[in-house]
Every structure is written in C-alpha cells, then in structure tokens.
From TrEMBL:
It holds the Pfam family BPD_transp_2. The keyword Ribosomal protein does not apply. It comes from the Bacteria. The lineage of its organism: Bacteria, Pseudomonadati, Pseudomonadota, Alphaproteobacteria, Hyphomicrobiales. It comes from Bosea vaviloviae. Residues 346-580 form the ABC transporter domain. This is Branched-chain amino acid ABC transporter ATP-binding protein.
C-alpha cells in the first residue's frame, strides 16, 4: 500500500466513484457503471488474451453463464444473487476447463475461431432450451428490492457493486502479473518450448488463467444481469461484445494491468455520451467510435497506451515518496545434489526416432554416470539434437526406452516439463530467449521451478547472472542481446532450474575465443558443483579438453565411444567426422 504505484492507482480509481457522486445525475452514474463493468470484463479477458496470449473471442459465454445462473436461481430457488453469482462462477470455471483443455492445443486464429464456435453453440442452446431460459423472448429478473436482491432504486448502489467488482478484478490481475503465474504465462506466450524446458506445463498455466478469467467474467455477468434486469441470448452471449472487450485491452495495452481499464475509460464514455445525446439515431454509433479509436491507436501506438507510455509514467510515479527500490533479498541456499559419483543417472536403450522415411536416431543405447562430462560429437544432421530432444521429453521415441535413475528407482517422465522437474535441464541449439523479458526475468523463469516466491527467484537469478557473466546486462531485454550473451542466457536459465543433469546443445557456437574459454571454465565449475553434464559441441578443442568421455554419432548410430584421446584416434570417427586434415594436424 505504501508504494506510490499502489496509492496513485487507488486515488485515480476512486474518481470512478467520486465524479458520479458529485454529479448526482442518473445518466452519469449509468455511464460510470458501464465503465466499471466493461473495464472489469476487459481486465478479466486480458488475463487470458494478454498475459497468456490466447485471443479468446468467445469470452462473453462466461458473462452469459453467470447472468443466467444467477437469474434462474432467484426465479426457481429464491436464492439471493450474492450466492447465485458464485454458483454461476463455479459453472463458468467448469465450462472454462472443458473448453480450454481441447482449445489450448490450437494456435493463433484457430484458437480464436474455436472460442467463437463455442460461444455460438452456447447461445443457440440458450435459445433452444426456452422452457428454462425464456429463449429469444428473454428473461426478466425477479424484481425484489434491496441489497439482498441486488435491485435498487438508488442507482449509486449499483455503482458501488460495479466498482467493487472492478477493484477485485484489478487486484487479481495485478497479483497474477507480479507472481510466478504471471511470469509463467508470459513465458508460455513467448516460447512454449523454452517454457516447458524450464519445468512449466503450458496447458496447466493456461488453464489456471482461463479459469480465473472465467470466474471474474461470470461474476461481472451476474451483476450486469441484475443491473439490466433483462436477459436475452443475443446480448448475454454476444460476439460483438466479446470483440469490444478484447478491443479495450488492445487500445489500452495488451498484457498490462491498467491497459484494459484505460482503454475502456477512453472509449466507453465517448460512445455512451454519443448514444445519450443522439438517442435512437445513434444506434451502432458506438461500434464506429470503437473502430475509429482502435484503428488510430494500432496505427500510431502498436503497444497500446500503457505499452507505449507505461514505463515512462511508471518511472515518474516511482519518484514519489515510498518509490525507492527495496534491498535485494539474499539468494537462498542451492539445492544439495546427493548421490554417489559414478552411479548411473540416465540410461537409454535402443532409441529409434523416425521422421517419415528418415531414421534420425538408430538404435542408440547409452548411459550417463553421475559427475561426468559426456561429450557428443558427430557430423551435421547426425541426430545429436534429436537424441537431446528425446532425453529431455520433447520427442517421443518411435521405439526404445529412456530411464532417469534416482535413488535406485528408474522413471520416465511423460512431458518436457516433467523431465525438467525430474532434474534434466536443457539448452536449445537455436537460442530460445523470452525476448520481451529482461535478462534477470528470463533467468527467473528457470529459478521459479524450485523457488516459487518472486523475491527468492530473483535472488537466485541475480546470483546465476553473475556466475555466467551476464551481470552487466541484467536489466536489458533479451531481444537486444548479441548471440554470445544469448548463448550464456540459455545456460543461465537452465542452470537456474538447479538441474541434476545439464544438456548443453552447442553453447560455444558463435562465441569468441575468450568467451569459449570462459564457457569451458564455467562448465567445469558447474560439474564441480555436482551437476552432471552432456554437451553437444563442434568445437573439438573445447570438447576434448572438457569431456571425461565422448560418444560419436553418425547417421543416427553410435559409431564410437570412450575417452577423448582414443575416440579421436578411431579411424571410423576420422572418416565420418574429423577428417584426415584434423588427424594430420593432431599428428594422429
Ligand atoms: N522434427 C523433425 N522432423 C523431420 N526431420 C527432422 C526433425 N528433427 C530433425 N530432423 C532431421 O533429423 C536429422 C538429424 O537432425 P539433428 O538436428 O538431430 O542433427 P544434429 O546432429 O543435431 O545436427 P547439427 O550438428 O547440424 O545440429 C536431420 O536430417 C534433420 O533434418
């Protein structure tokens, strides 16, 4: 509460109550109720559409479910809307899981189309079951006056409830944004694979977001039904309103906490005032107003208002009393890796991976011993990365088995995130940074796996950033880093998950001579701290000096393995990969 961003926001928000209280006009109160309702809907939508990047265009289904459940429970069971709205919210949560689970497998426009389809289905069902819902003719909410029934003569009471719901939605949205879930949603939105490698289950976090969003939307829908006192499928399950709600967030700033509110405050009053002044002749005018503002904003400010000016305004506000940065927390103790050096940690048997007619790994059997650095070499296209993808859960082998051995027990996790949580950390050959997050935030995404609390994850990330030599670019957005730093960031994010086994895929590619030496020293230090390492590398000098053991793969098959000196002398390895020039240069 003492932070200026909080008290300034509360002061500005209170204007939504103070201005209509001073004016005392029923129409002005109506405009402010509408602002609170739509800002709440847009803020709730933004949790899915903005934070999770899933452009739902069927969100009004939860609004409608809330409204109808509340109205029907009053009508048939005489239940107060204060109870009915939670029943509606529970039903919306169930519907959100049932719809979200299959739909989250769809990407981009297909997801949006699927949400529209579900909205239409529910609208048609509401029309079809007219015996219950009143069908197209609509349903009138039983008019019993008083707080218990949420029906008032004094319109200001409606505004108090609408404001309360908006405040609740904003607090939830703010809390998500600043908690692990918010970071996870951003990570999943930007790069699902990298998020999975950091132990995040994309489906689980998206489902969490959609359930929270559905519950909030449904609560607002219940209230709005009580406010309008009339429900019909066309307005309760409206596609155009779903689009408007998304549009407010786009105008204000997608994925920001106050963006949806700002977008609504900007456009709803203009449209409502135009409707108020021009009456029936202004039918459809609000759509024109929204469209015009949207076009202007997307053309001039693609990040929306908050996306463009938010950081600058935030810095001004931080200069107010209480805005000084807090001291950083001490990094928590590192996870103690236990186990006997030399014991088997990972074993693959006869791994085959076919892509159509191509066999990328062909009968690969290998094992990894605790505490070693295992190098994997081989020509381009030999199947090295495909092997990594299988032992980190990103590819399901066509045949063969993978076992992670821990405490004498062998397990095979079912998904990439489960592999990560089982202690296998991996980097990607083609770097996968979360471009719009800073270096520290990128590393925090990894750290969250074992440190759910934001302050601890940040402390771990700060320590890891120093370890890999990224301390000088901590607050730089990852998209602005050169390739050498991006490679180090890959290692840092994976290291922050505190893995037992670290899979490094060509982390020295694109690094300068000095950086390569630093990386070699870093990998040794990581091993000395108890982490077992497998490294795919084309830099022979580096991999020779690092590895305790090397496996050579060619055309998907293991053609040689052993200590570095004997492997580079192997004729098959010289013929398939190293070449005679290398052998001559080494005097082999
Ligand atoms: N998802 C995929 N679908 C189809 N083919 C694939 C897929 N992934 C890899 N391949 C093919 O499998 C073969 C092995 O590729 P892989 O990336 O594992 O090789 P690599 O040894 O890591 O090569 P490099 O050293 O160039 O990274 C290649 O021919 C590649 O084109």
């Amino acid at each position: 509460m003492a932070h200026p961003r909080v008290y300034v926001a509360l002061i500005l928000l209170s204007l939504l109550l103070i201005v209509p209280a001073l004016s005392d006009s029923a129409f002005i109160i109506h405009v402010f109720v509408t602002i609170c309702v739509f800002a709440g809907l847009s803020t709730a939508w933004n949790i899915v559409g903005g934070y999770a990047g899933q452009l739902s265009l069927g969100h009004m289904m939860f609004y409608g479910i809330g409204g109808y459940t509340t109205a029907l429970l009053i009508q048939h069971l005489g239940l107060s809307p204060w109870i009915g709205m939670w029943a509606g919210a529970a039903l919306s949560a169930v519907v959100a899981v049932c719809i979200g689970y299959p739909c989250f497998r769809l990407r981009g426009p297909f997801f949006s189309l699927a949400t529209i389809a579900f909205l239409e289905v529910i609208r048609l069902l509401a029309i079809h079951f007219h015996g219950v819902t009143g069908g197209s003719a609509g349903l009138i909410v039983p008019l019993k006056l008083g707080w218990a029934w949420m029906i008032f003569q004094d319109k200001f009471n409606y505004l108090i409830i609408a404001f309360g719901l908006l405040l609740l939605t904003l607090v939830v949205s703010y809390a998500i944004r600043n908690a692990r879930l918010g970071y996870y949603l951003t990570a999943v939105r930007e790069r699902e694979d990298a998020a999975s490698a950091a132990g995040i289950s994309p489906t689980r976090v998206k489902l969490k977001a959609v359930v929270i969003s559905a519950v909030l939307t449904s609560l607002i829908g219940s209230f709005h039904a009580m406010y309008t006192t009339f429900l019909e499928p066309a307005t309760m399950f409206s596609l155009s309103t779903s689009i408007e709600v998304a549009m407010f967030a786009l105008i204000g700033g997608l994925g920001t906490v106050v963006g949806p509110l700002l977008g609504t405050v900007l456009v709803v009053p203009i449209a409502e005032l135009a409707r108020g002044w021009l009456g029936a002749s202004a039918n459809g005018l609000h759509g024109f107003v929204y469209g015009t503002v949207l076009v202007l904003i997307t053309l001039t400010l693609p990040g929306g208002l908050v996306g463009t000016y938010g950081a600058r305004v935030g810095r001004w506000i931080d200069r107010l009393p209480g805005g000084q940065p807090r001291p950083e927390q001490e990094a928590p103790a590192l996870r103690q890796i236990t186990g006997t050096p030399g014991e088997t940690m990972l074993e693959t048997k006869n791994l085959v991976m076919r892509f159509g007619g191509l066999t990328a790994t062909d009968d690969v059997s290998m094992m990894l011993k605790r505490g070693e650095i295992l190098g994997i070499i081989g020509p381009n296209g030999a199947g090295k990365t495909t092997l990594f993808n299988q032992i980190s859960g990103f590819l399901q082998p066509s045949s063969g088995s993978i076992a992670i051995v821990s405490g004498g027990k062998a397990t095979t996790p079912a998904s990439p995130d489960a592999f990560a949580r089982a202690g296998i950390g991996r980097t990607f050959q083609i770097v996968q940074p979360f471009g719009k997050l800073t270096v520290i935030e990128n590393i925090m995404i990894g750290a969250f796996m074992r440190h759910p609390d934001v302050a601890s994850a940040r402390a771990v990330a700060l320590r890891v950033s120093s370890l890999v030599g990224l301390q000088h670019v901590r607050e730089v957005e990852a998209r602005n880093l050169p390739i050498g730093d991006l490679k180090r960031l890959e290692v840092a994010r994976t290291l922050a998950t505190e893995p037992d086994i670290l899979l490094l895929d060509e982390v020295m590619a694109g690094q300068s001579q000095t950086d390569t030496q630093t990386m070699v020293a870093l990998i040794r230090a990581i091993r000395d701290a108890g982490v077992t390492v497998i490294a795919i590398e084309h830099n022979m000098q580096a991999i020779m000096s690092l590895s305790d053991r090397i496996i050579v793969i060619d055309s998907g098959k293991v053609i040689a393995q052993g200590d570095p000196q004997s492997v580079v002398r192997d004729r098959r390895v010289i013929e398939a990969y190293l070449g005679e020039d290398f052998a001559n240069a080494q005097g082999l």
